[in-house]
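Long-time lurker, finally posting.

We've been working with Na+/H+ antiporter subunit E (Zeimonas arvi) and I want a structural starting point before designing mutants. I don't trust myself to interpret raw outputs, so I'm hoping someone here can both generate the structure tokens and explain anything notable. Sequence follows.
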Amino acid sequence: MKRLLPAPLLSATLFVAWLMLNQSASAGNLVLAAIFAAGLPLAFGGFRVDPPRIRRPLVIARLGLLVLYDIVMSNIEVARRILGPESKITPRFVWVPLDIRDPHGIAALAGIITMTPGTLSSDLTEDRRHLLVHAFNVDDEQALVASIKERYETPLREIFE
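Top reply, 14 upvotes:
Generated this for you. Predicted structure of Na+/H+ antiporter subunit E:
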């Protein structure tokens, strides 16, 4: 069974995603969904990194709520800055030193930063020790770095390491 479905959760996700994207559970879509769900993980299995090991799953819920809160607050802050004088906006690139080493955690951190309005992950050093972040408005680089590390990196380390 493992050879036929090497990634059952991924296969299930692909199956449901196909049906949702097509907004139809017709026989043809069910067959195509099954083909994609079984075939894509087999075809691209060599590209997959080791599956993540979740150490503290309850921290995921807390982090998710924090990210949702930060997205809402950042939307308000970006709107306020855009509607205000342009001279008050100080965009900047900031290198954030990383303590997290798990590639899934680093990817999650980059995704969280990019999802939060006003910030964007733009580069990762080859040794995965620094993440380049562009921020829409930076008053204090050290405060931005400390906030990212405390709010996102620390919980991600609890989850993945």
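Before you design anything, note these points.
Strands lie at 92-97, 119-124, 130-135.
The first helix runs from residue 8 to 22.
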